[in-house]
Amino acid sequence: MDPLYARYPFFEAAREAVAGADVSLPALVASDAPAVERGRERVERALRSGTTASETPDAYDVTAELLSYPIARILVSLLESTAAVEKYASAEAATAADRIREDLEREDALRSTDSVSLDLSDVLREFDLADAVRPAVRGTNGGAGSTGQVVEPHVRGGSSGRPSTRDPEWFRIDVGPYLQLFDAEWGDRWRLVNRELRDGTVWIDRADLDRCLERAARSRILEGLPFEFADDDGISSDLEAHVADLRRLLDERATVGSFDVVVPELFPPCMRNLIDKAEREAALSPPESLALMAFLTAIGMSPDEIVAFCADTSLDAEGIRYQTEYLRDEAGAQYPPPTCETLSAYGICHNEDDHWQVAGDPLAYYEARLEAAEDIVDWRDRNDVAEAA
Ligand code: SF4
């Protein structure tokens, strides 16, 4: 089995490999094969942490990892929650986008010895974008070449004929696919009027292309979801216990959102440490920024308020809006920030003064401190913030 399929189980070739394999998903579920536990982990991690990468990747072989994807799709369908399906698809796509970046950034020498081989042209072909996205070089004046001409750089040729140069930093994408891929929630910078449009193509940089590819992956993952099941479908009853666990996780949302007070002095140490780190202009890792955004969202801050709160930090407004959008469902409910245990596993929590004794998650700790405090003033009501607004 090609390890590439396990990393990108929604690729067409991976789906064909599953269809062609002599494997029965109901039998797999009935025997509680490793792919089932990994499938449950995929959905749980998607709902809790915004990723579907395993916390114990060495525990699963390539086949279990690949087959856990259809199992996860069955599980998330059984939750009967549109918000859960959307969060699951976003997490799968974000995980795939991280992997695509990792795999493409490897040097050719390294790549030739690695078991996974992926080129940008392979990825573009996968999403039917091979003809719509073309690499190009910007001129020194910041435009489409100093003479107004587009220069085509040497481009990787895909797994069937790979040149040795690195992928370029700029691309032109046909306006039709661009409009299909971008999301109005991404901010004004993405609106066509704010883009350089020439000969029916839009200029985008490498980071923009990564985001478009993540969007294409999300659309692919959402195809066919949620599944519908017959009442007497054996697979549903065999997965009942896993579904009940995941439903409990979804229900935790009900306990979030009762806050609507922002007192930074009373934030738990883990969140203060992350804010201090961002204020030193140090980049936060994806789990760090997700934990911070989940906490700030859960205490009732709007995306605009979070952008203002983080104005003097390394966090940029566009990234904040993107993450906070992920953390809210259509009804405006939020998912809770990770527990102290999870934050500890990521090295974010240092359990200062043994305050795990006080609370099991940062929200509960904050709530306890609010209850004990007197004369609190909401950050949003403070003079300097009100004047700046
Ligand atoms: S124990 Fe919990 S609340 Fe306290 S710093 Fe660690 S993660 Fe944060």
Protein traits:
mainly alpha, 50% helix, iron, 3 domains, 389 residues, DNA_primase_C, binds iron/sulfur cluster, four-stranded antiparallel β-sheet, DNA replication, metal ion binding
Structure explained in plain terms:
This protein has 389 residues and is mainly alpha-helical. It folds into three domains: 3-105 and 226-250, no CATH class; 119-220, no CATH class; 256-388, no CATH class. The protein has 19 helices and four strands. The protein has helices at 3-7, 12-20, 25-30, 34-49, 62-78, 82-105, 108-113, 120-126, 175-181, 206-222, 234-238, 240-251, 269-279, 286-298, 303-309, 317-327, 340-345, 362-372, 383-388, and strands at residues 133-136, 170-174, 197-198, 201-205. Strands 1-2-4-3 form a four-stranded antiparallel beta sheet. Helix 4 (34-49) packs across helix 5 (62-78) and helix 15 (303-309) packs antiparallel against helix 16 (317-327). The termini are far apart. The model is unreliable at 140-165 (pLDDT under 50). Iron/sulfur cluster binds at residues 268-270, 340, 343, 349, 351, 355-356, 359, 362, 365. Residues 262-378 form the DNA primase large subunit C-terminal domain. Heterodimer of a small subunit (PriS) and a large subunit (PriL). GO terms for molecular function: 4 iron, 4 sulfur cluster binding; DNA-directed RNA polymerase activity; metal ion binding. It comes from Halopenitus malekzadehii. InterPro entries: DNA_primase_C (IPR058560), DNA_primase_lsu_PriL (IPR023642).
